[in-house]
Structures are given as C-alpha cells and as structure tokens.
Amino acid sequence: MVSDSPQKRIGVGVLGCGNVGSALIALLQERQTAIAQRTGLKLDVVRVAVRNAARDRSVALADGVLTADAAAVVNDPRVDIVVELIGGIEPARELVSNALELGKPVVTGNKELLANYGAELFAAADAAQVDLLFEAAVGGGIPLIRPLSESLAAEPVRRVMGIVNGTTNYILSQMTEHGTSYQDALADAQSLGYAEQDPTADVEGFDAASKASIIATVAFGARVPAGSVYREGISSVGPADIAFARRLGYAIKLLAIAERVGHIGGQPELAVRVHPAMVPADHPLAAVRDSFNAVFIEGDAVGELMLYGRGAGGRPTASAVLGDLIDAAGNWGRGTWTPIGDRGEAVICSIDDLESEFYINMEVLDRPGVLAAVAGVFGRHGVSIRSMEQEGLGDQARLVFITHEAAERDVQATLGDLRELDSVRGVPALLRVVSR
Question: What is the pTM for the complete model shown?
C-alpha cells in the first residue's frame, strides 16, 4: 500500500561501512523514494562510523557524515536509529547498550554479540521500550528470525535444522561434486572471499554455533547461551567419508540443530548442537550447494518448512538489515516496539544423552579374527550394527559401519574400547546420521 500521509524523517546512524554497511547505504540510496512511498518514512543516513574516515568508499556520502568516532554516532541527537555492523564483542556491546539506554532502537547483524550477550541486550531493549532487531545475524539474506518469532509464534516447533555457514557448505560441495581435497577446497573458498585467511571460526563450527544459539533462543522461547552449544567442525571429514556417504545414499553437511526433547521445571529441555552429519540424499538439505544456506523447520501443526537463500554477501545481508530498519523505524515513529521479554534460560540436554544412527570409519589390520573382535566391542556396549562395508588398503582394511539408533555415550564408549585393540590402527571419522 502506498502511503499518502506526510513523510516522517528518520535519522539513521550506521556503525561500520564494510561489505554489508556500504551495501546497506547503497540500498537505502537506491530505494529511499520507494520506501517513503510505501511506508511514509524517509530514512536518512546522517552519520557513519568507520575506522579510517579518509579512505575512499564505494558509496557517496555527504561531507561530515563519516567519522572515526563511533560513540559520536550513537550520541548524535540527529540519529534516531542505530545500525551496528562492526561485528565482534567490544566495542559493539558498549555501543549497542548505550544506544538502547538513550532510547534509540538498534538493528544489528552481530551473531557473536547476540549469542554471548543477547540476554543482557534484550533486557536493555525491553527496559527502554525500543526494538533490538537482528534478522541478518543468522541467515544472511534469508528471512528466518521474523518467521520464527512472528509467523510461527504459536507453533509448537519440534526441530530447527539447517546449513547456516556458507564457507563449510562450499567446501563440502567441492569435495562431494569434484573430488577436491579439503585443503584445496578451503583454498578455493579463501580465494573467492567465502573464507577468511584464518578460517577457524567457519571450519571448526564456531560461527554456526553462535547462529544455533540465536535460532534456538528464538524458536523455543528460552535463552540458549553460545557456550552451551555442542560443537564439531569439518576438518576431520576426508575423501573416503565423502565417497562412502554418496555410495550409501547420503550427503555430508555441517548442520546446526536445535530440537525440543522435553520440559523440566516449566522450561523447555533442548538439544542444541553443531556437527557434520550424514543427510539422506532425498532430504531437501542434501541438495543445498556451494555457499547457499537453508533452514529446515519442523512443527507440530505446520509440518515441514524450508527457507533457502544466500547466507552471506553484502547485498543479501544488507537486504535483511534494511527490512529490520524499516520495521524499527515504523515502530519508532508510532511509539511502539516489539517486546522480547525475559524468557529464562533453557535446560540443555547433554550430547551424551542423545540418540541417533552413526557412521563409523575405522582402519584395521587385514587379518583373521579382526572383524569378530570389532563386532564384539560393539555388542558389549549394546550398539547394534545396521550395515558394514570393507575396503582393502594393502595389508590393512577400512571398515565402515552404520549403526542402528544408539545413545551417544554408548557409541563413544565403543570407540574408546576399539582404539585399545591392537588390530585397530585408527578411527578417522564418526558422523551422526540424520533420520528423515
């Protein structure tokens, strides 16, 4: 609907003018008239904080807009709404807190900040009765937070499972489709700008764990600190695992999984984890390639939903930020906000208590009696074998097992005893298998 009412001017202060910040400003410049016509809001970028105000920028800004003093942007009386895009914990935490204390709504894409200090900042936003919006913090350009918090607010969500890191998905796609080694796929990702020179946050699952924390908090209505998210990365996934997964009808993906397993003392008991997993080839997530992201939602009434799109990149992420900015500006103009509330902290189920099927890849000496000894260890711990394949490796052999559903603690105890056998040379990989 096109607004015929007088346009209300909203001053916007942007903290950070990197890839996303510059794309946001460009989108605002391109679409300012259309936004004003549709909403009655004229969004003006009046201050932008950068590390180096003398550096050339990809967007044109009026004289005096750029500053190296981020606090001055927050405190500027012309700034009605603050957009935080500098990332990290500090000084972002202090700047966002100060903006909220001043009664200024905040839009952020800072997953690390929200995963670690979300409770503190949500409380500050509610106390100030202003918005703290963060659509861009999880899925880049994919609308996820708003559907979970609004469209599915009354839906008893059972599980949210997704590919939320484009770097690792690109690496695994290259390994799967082209037989590329892990190191070469990582180098390709770095050359394309998908991975940082230090890729640890991506490949070891830290980035996905922060996002899983936020997803779980929104989906289940209880706080999930980032430190409570179980985490594994993809650096141990090898070509043999990729090949066996394909042969057995699976694709390997790094998944963020948050699911409701019960209730304790009125609070939901949740299992929240990040790890590589074997996904059935006919599952929608198995077809998500390259740097794309997707989140699969399962609810009691709605059934199954999947949201898919680019999980990173300047313009896709800036689009999500802009959507939040328009929402926040509209609420601010009307003197309203979206309360977050004190949700309390969720009860987190230990990974040891969870059950799933498992893929186990082990290397053994190729001699009589080895398979019987290995099977005996599985049996002692009550882990039932669903299928087994053997591949010759000279005087050694690779044994690949898929188990029936078993408890994590029993499988880990099995692996511990297997490693003690003289005939076992190593257990290169353990992957959980996603059930459909």
Answer: 0.92
